[in-house]
Structure prediction request, 218 residues.
Amino acid sequence: LGQHLVPELPARTDLELQVELPPAQRRHYDQARVALAHALEDPEGEGERFQVLAALTQLRQLACHPLLVDETWTRGAAKLEAVAELVQELRDGGHRALLFSQFTRFLRLVEARLSADGARCLYLDGQTPAKRRQRLVDQFQAGEGDAFLISLKAGGQGLNLTGADYVIHLDPWWNPAVEDQATDRAHRIGQTRPVTVYRLVAQGGGEGEGPPSSSSVL
Prediction:
């Protein structure tokens, strides 16, 4: 007796959107994967773990957009096209979305593409001052912005963004619990609509939890 009942949250649906890398991007990725695998055949002592993590991070970046690793890259990227198409569909349906990535440079590339398509974008990362951070949240909650792009670390806690009913994770994070914390920015008390969560993964890559020679998704 005397306990307050916690309101039941709306339904949450989790979907995996597999993105097939085009031939040029896949070749670029495979070349890097093989080179990194060879480099890790003779790791340097205590730094082995960090070398593996660095290699996996580079593969994840290549899966998002080769430009994150290769400044000479002049072609597009499959995930960029996929998220642009998805956000356009959501806008057409009157929906608003939170977009999360661990790579701020990729978020900026996505922001530029969505803005070019006419989407109203807001952006927040770990470098955003606290006052501006709250102002951006208030703007989004007031109905401004079709897409709110947030770095995964900056958006893990402390944000109430129930103005969105879609959440898009552009790349997998090492700890799934961190992704869930980010998703909870929209799926929380105050949310009145069902929330749909998309996770974009590139088909047939090697970015999983194992070494670069694995064949999981990224």
